[in-house]
Amino acid sequence: MNSELTDLLAIGIPVTGLGMAALALMIHQELGPFAGLDRAGKWLLSATFGMGLLAFGLKMAVAVAIENGPAPLGESLPLFARPAAASDAEFANPAPPRSARHVWTALPEVAPAPVDNPTTPERVALGRRLFFEKKLSGDGKLACASCHDLFASAGADGRPTAKGIAGQLGTRNTPTVWNAAFQSVLFWDGRAPSLEAQAMGPILNPLEMGLASPAEAERRLNADAAYRTEFQAAFGDAAPISFARIAQAIAAFERTLITPDSPYDRFVRGEARALTRAQLRGMALFETVGCVLCHRGPNFSDASLLGGESARRIFPANATPYETKYGLLNNGERGIWRVASLRNVALTGPWLHNGAVDSLPEVVRIMAGAQLGRSAGLTTWLDEKSALGKVDRSPLGEQEVADLVAFLEALSSDSLRARMQAEKSR
Questions:
Q1: How far is 418 from 406, CA to CA, in rounded Å?
Q2: CA distances from 191 to 198, 202, 391 (A)
Q3: Which of 29, 48, 138, 171 makes an SS bond possible with 210, Cβ 3.0 to 4.6 Å?
């Protein structure tokens, strides 16, 4: 029982008792004699009014319990429920009631860059070379591009989880690097605050590229005269190559990996026929069902530099059979994950943090149940009617799922899709 409910009961029970006593006294001293009632009549009238007062109190208690109490297994939990260990400051409910309609916007063609790392042609060219550089791995066999194949796998690797040095398998699905420049935090847990910080991680991770140290990366590149020249051109001085500058150059290149040419982008820019009827229905559902509560803005992620409000969410937030079927819990606990962008999502399966789902319609069903509580009808307090009532939380129908998938397909870049098809036909 939470503190708010305890406080309410502590006040409500004595007040209800006093009210019933006052009512009985009024009936016995005033109303009864005025109406000519005998002793039995007075008690009957007291009981009648008392039951009404008690029923009102019980109704209020039930409403408060539904609003505040823990939901049993299978019931819909609050949309953004969180474990006790989560910080209120960091994980406050990011989706207050919205008074205005969702605003649909296209992806910008240029990503913002930090003041200390401008996106210059020289840094982009150097970063591109480093992105494919296998000297940055412990055994000289892996590069950033090994797990982030730009075209064959739409910037990911097509695996459930990443495959690193010596064939080691990681525990997380590889996110795409396309449009990562618009995300405010990187990695599944959101621990990296910038592309520069993210670029350092895999190079030194013993399960990924497995390089021994930043100094080793600097030593290997300094041994190459061409790299010394390129770093001087990119950073404007003859200072030694540094690990921080390696990360800056890779980040500068990644800020050019933008796909603003999806059917959705063409539609919101004014091309009325860019979306099919199914995609338009899915777009409407995406808003009304509640997907926009987490996947909003032009990059379709609340973990975005473009209008994002709360970068992380509990997942799965609601108990469903999916969490066992697909192993969605994190060591038996509900994880706290960065909100993934849905840009090019139809091209980057398998999906979710553990890569356990290889069907996009199934992902839609999982998110509807686990995040939006679409698993049953829910009895709740209806503020606008001051009454208890049913809210429709039934699972999405198959047509709704198909329409939502059609809209997600519309978030795929036309040029990236064409390049992927060309790669597959080789």
A1: 18
A2: 9, 13, 37
A3: 138
The structure tokens listed for 113 are 């860059």
- pTM of the shown model: 0.76
Decide if 208 is catalytic. Answer: yes
Q: Is the preceding peptide bond at 350 cis, omega within 30 degrees of 0?
A: yes
What is the Rg, in whole angstroms, of the alpha carbon atoms belonging to the chain? Answer: 29
**pLDDT over 70 for what percent of the chain?**
73
Domain 263-425 matching CATH 3.40.50.720: the answer reads: no
Domain boundaries, the chain: 3-68, 121-254, 263-425
Using one digit for the tens of pLDDT, what is the confidence trace for 257-272? Answer: 999 999 999 999 999 9
Strand partners, 112: none
How many angstroms separate the Cα of 190 from the Cα of each of 47, 144, 184?
A: 61, 19, 8
The CA distance from 253 to 268, in Å, is 27
Catalytic residue among 133, 196, 208, 409: 208
What residues contact residue 216 under an 8 Å CB cut-off, 6+ apart?
A: none
Report the pLDDT averaged over residues 325-339: 95
Q: Is 327 left (phi over 0), alpha (psi -120 to 50) or beta?
A: left
If you count them, how many residues does the chain have? 426
**Domain 121-254, classified CATH 3.80.10.10, yes or no:** no
pLDDT tier at 377 (50, 70, 90 boundaries)?
Answer: low
pLDDT in tens, 69-86: 433 333 333 333 333 333
